[in-house]
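FAQ

Q: What does a record look like?
A: Structure on top, sequence underneath. For example:
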């Protein structure tokens, strides 16, 4: 195995997100940085797209996830997106940083960064938290 990371920076994903009602009146554009841990060995030797993770398909999947999934918390959105990408693509792991503008509250951008290992994702999906 030859570990490698595919990095996608500043991917814009529109989604309905926010705790406050005024945040949830229309989709907001999140800025995502994705770090996809893969085994680059097969594609390094073959030079074929089918032997690696197609980052165009990853970007399309992230945008589709944003359109189809609303969330109150950025943490929930990022975790769900990471789980979805791990299920859909042959990833060893994923690091996602999601940036959201919160002009009405802080006049700033805030971010959540989540690191997920594909081996742990099935176990983590069974963990639940009480309010």
């Amino acid at each position: 195995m030859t570990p490698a990371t595919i990095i996608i920076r500043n991917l814009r994903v529109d989604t309905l997100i926010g705790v406050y009602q005024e945040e949830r009146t229309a989709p907001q554009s999140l800025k995502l940085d994705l770090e996809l841990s893969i085994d680059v060995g097969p594609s390094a030797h073959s030079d074929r797209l089918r032997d690696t993770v197609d980052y165009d398909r990853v970007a399309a999947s992230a945008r589709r996830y944003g359109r189809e999934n609303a969330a109150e918390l950025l943490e929930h959105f990022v975790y769900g997106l990471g789980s979805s990408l791990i299920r859909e693509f042959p990833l060893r792991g994923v690091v996602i940083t999601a940036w959201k503008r919160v002009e009405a509250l802080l006049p700033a951008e805030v971010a959540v960064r989540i690191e997920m290992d594909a081996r742990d994702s099935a176990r983590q999906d069974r963990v639940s938290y009480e309010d």
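Q: Is there anything notable about this one?
A: The longest strand covers residues 3-15.
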